[in-house]
Each structure stands twice: as structure tokens, then as C-alpha cells.
Amino acid sequence: MTSTDLHHSPELLRTRVAELLADARLRSTRLTELDDAELVAQHSPLMSPLVWDLAHIGSQEELWLVRDVGGREPLRPEIDGLYDAFQHSRASRVELPLLTPAEARAYVAEVREKALDVLDGHALSGRRLVEHAFAFGMIVQHEQQHDETMLATHQLRAGAPVLDAPAPPPGRALPRSPGDGRPDGGGPGWVSEVLVPGGPFTMGTSTEPWALDNERPAHVVDVPAFVIDTHPVTNGQYAEFIAAGGYDDPRWWSAAGWRHRVEEGLVAPRFWQQDGSGSWFRRRFGRVEPVPADEPVVHVNCHEADAYAAWAGRRLPTEAEWEKAARHDPESGRSRRFPWGDADPTPAHANLGQRHLQPAPVGAYPAGASPLGVHQLVGDVWEWCASGWHPYPGFEAFPYREYSEVFFGGDYRVLRGGSFATDASVGRATFRNWDHPIRRQIFSGFRTARDARPSDLRG
Q1: Whether 198 contacts 223, CB under 8 Å
Q2: Domain boundaries of the chain, sorted by first residue
Q3: Residue 359: which of 429, 284, 425, 255 has the closest Cα?
Q4: Could you give phi then psi for residue 382, rounded to 5 degrees?
Q5: Strand 432-435's sheet: what is its strand order?
Q6: Do 167-459 and 3-156 have the same topology in CATH?
Q7: Yes or no: is domain 167-459 CATH 3.30.360.10?
Q8: How far is Cα 212 from Cα 433, in angstroms, rounded to an integer?
Q9: What is the pLDDT of residue 6?
Q10: What tens digit of pLDDT does each residue of 71-91 get?
Q11: Are 425 and 433 in contact (CB under 8 A)?
């Protein structure tokens, strides 16, 4: 049964919504199991104090589920402004009169109790906001998105490790493409690419019940033939770029990218450091360890991704190319929900949901590959795309402008696919993310692409 099937049974849907809300809250609780000093501290000016994220989760749940859907009286109307993300920058939130950790925990628990009461008693019909339990799904996704943000804050905090998880499954060697001369990244057989045939495909969705406004509506896009990497660029491949002087050669960088690289003194992905022998190490959630050559590179910004691609004689895929590689089934001509089909992701398909605290080695999820043989398009690392952040044709803001519409334009670049920190409730192949091209604290990586050549089409 897929998640779409649940929406035909209100009782099954209520049960599933309650489970997803509980899963999100369990994760939020684990991420805030720290002493009060750690929760109220600002670990980076790029991030909010963890206690702000926790209460903000409750505030949004109260606004949408308790007040709007449930029509209940406000619980704490005096704190609405404190937890409005548009009123206060992340860097300034530490100075606000925030709820204490104990108050925040009590508040989110009270909100959840009332939200579940609304869920139990609501017909889940009569308004677009509640059809298919959309408002509840929106709140599940909102909490999980903030959980990923809180996990990024954990990566930025100093001090002893406080999080743990098992290692991801081992990788597998992927076949090399004939004539592909790019660096191996640490071992044979890791570099390969596939041709995605040209032609139209359906991008976005008009049927996914919990898809957010920027994923809608479904529309046909004609994409010329292109070639794309079968896996994200690895640490080993990226280290070759560094060793070749990639950070010192402005030929590979855009003007804006080179300016930012110089101003910030960038020499490697964030959290990497080199020892006296030239070996690379990384800090990962408080642990220092050798950089694994076969994992997708993470914590690189879009300028770095563009520079690597240029050095390799390639480019980043456009957003439409990325989604076609992830969803298009060349045999049936239809767009799938996920690279592997329409079934919801399982641990065999993708590295999602903080099951592991790192990307998995390339080739670790053969069951998650697309029909064309493209691997790890969902999970592991968010993948930078060449496209800016814009609405689809026919876009309609719903249920509020501040989720997507106010961010369209500017210098934002699209990221697709989710990361190891992204929950499956968010990890759709249609889900769209965006950020400034200088951001590196997010769990971002990339894969490269190129235009198809006549020889590719003849093959």
C-alpha cells in the first residue's frame, strides 16, 4: 500500500497521521535531549537556538491544527511573534525572551494533545486545507524539516558527541562508462554516467496529496537528451579536484563564486581538515575521522559544486534534468513517485530519516536506482542544481505565501533529492528545496551532467 492509498480511508488516514506526528515528535525530543545551556545557546549565527526551533514547531502546529482546523482558542497568543520566522533573524533569536526549555517542552506537549483531539474529531473534508488531512501532513513535514535544521545545528555545535547511529550499508562498485577519464575518487569502477533520452516528461505533481505548493502543478517539460552521473560526486573525487589546485584556479569558478571563495578563504568542504601527511579528516557530529573516499561529498556550497563540475568538463544538471533522471520511466513514458517506482521508501531504497548520521557509500542502495540506472537520487545528500528558484507554470500559493512565493527569484539555487537527515515524509522525488549558493552548513552535495553528444545518441 502506498501513502496515496491511505487517503481513501479516513480511519486509516487518521491512524497514519497520528503515527507520523509521533515519529516527528520522537525525533524532535531526541534532538533536544541536551542540558538547558546547550538548548538556549546560539551555536552558530546561521542557526537558531535549539529551544527556539522546538517552540516554533509547537507554535506552527497550534496555529494550523488547533486554531485554524480545530477552531480552538489560542493557548499562548502572546508568544506568536517570538516564533514567527519572518519577524526575527536567526542571529537575533537568542536575545528574545523565549520560552525556557521546560516551558517549551510543556507547550509543545499541550499543543500536541489538542491537535490529536482535533484529528480524532474532524471529518477531514469540507475545506481544501483538510482534504486528505493536508494540514496535518503539512505540519508533519514542517516538524521534520525543522528536525533536519536542528541536526545541522548539532553538526555546528562544539563539544563532545551527543548523537549516535549505526553506520550505513556498504557501497558497491558501479560500472565505468567507456571513455570516461574523470578521477576514480579512490577506487576502480566508481565513475559512470547514463544517457537520459530527450523528449517530454511530466514534472511536478497535481495528485500527490501532501505535496506542497511549489511542487504543483504537474506540467510537461521537453528536456533535450543529456548525460548524468549515476551517483553523487564522492569525497575521493572531490579530493582530486582539491589536489589539482581547484581552489586556487579562478578558471573553474564563476565571478561570484571566486569572490566568495577568496573572501571566506575556502580551501575544502566545510568541516574538512588536513593533517601533516596530507590526509583529509572531517568533524562529524563531534567526532573527528578520516574522510571516506566512497561517500558522497557533503557540506559544499553551490559555487564549489559549479567549480568542480567545470574542472571535470561538465556542469550541474538543471532542475528539470534532475527530476527527469529521478522520475521518468522510459518504458512506460510516465513519471514515477520515486526513482524505484510508486511505493513509499524503505530502508532498502534510500538513506533517509536520520537512520544514519552520514551519507552512505555510492552503490549502497541498488533497490533505489531509477530505470536508467541512476543511483541515490533520494537521500544521502541534497543535490545542487543549475536552476534558480522559480515557480512552476500555474503556481498557486497555498495555504500561505510565506512558504514559497516570497522566496522566488533572488540568488537562490535549487536543491533536490533530500539527505540522510531528510524524513521520508519529505523525501518525495517532486520535493523542491532552495538556498543561497554560499550555504555549506546544510547537508548538500551534487552530481554532474553534460549535454549529450552524437556518439552518445548513436550508442
Answers
A1: yes
A2: 3-156, 167-459
A3: 284
A4: -60, 140
A5: 432-435, 413-416, 382-388, 444-445
A6: no
A7: no
A8: 11
A9: 61
A10: 999 999 999 999 999 999 999
A11: no
What pLDDT, in 10s, does the model give residues 196-210? 999 999 999 999 999
Q: What is the mean pLDDT of each run of 10 residues along the chain (459 residues)?
A: 61 96 98 97 96 98 97 95 94 96 98 98 94 97 98 96 96 58 41 90 97 98 97 96 98 98 98 95 97 97 98 97 97 96 97 98 96 96 98 97 95 98 96 98 98 87
Which cell numbers hold the place of 325? 533522471
- Whether the model clears a pTM of 0.90, i.e. scores above it, the answer is yes
The CATH class of the 3-156 domain is mainly alpha
Q: Which of 133, 222, 209, 177 is nearest to 453 (CA)?
A: 177
CB 99 within 8 Å of CB 55: yes
Answer for the pair 138, 212: CB distance below 8 angstroms, yes or no.
yes
Give CA 224 to chain center in angstroms. 26
Residue type at position 391:
P
Assigned C-alpha cell, 53:
526551533
- Half-sphere exposure for 127 (CA within 13 Å, toward CB): 12
Identify whether the C-beta of residue 172 lies closer than 8 Å to the C-beta of residue 227: no
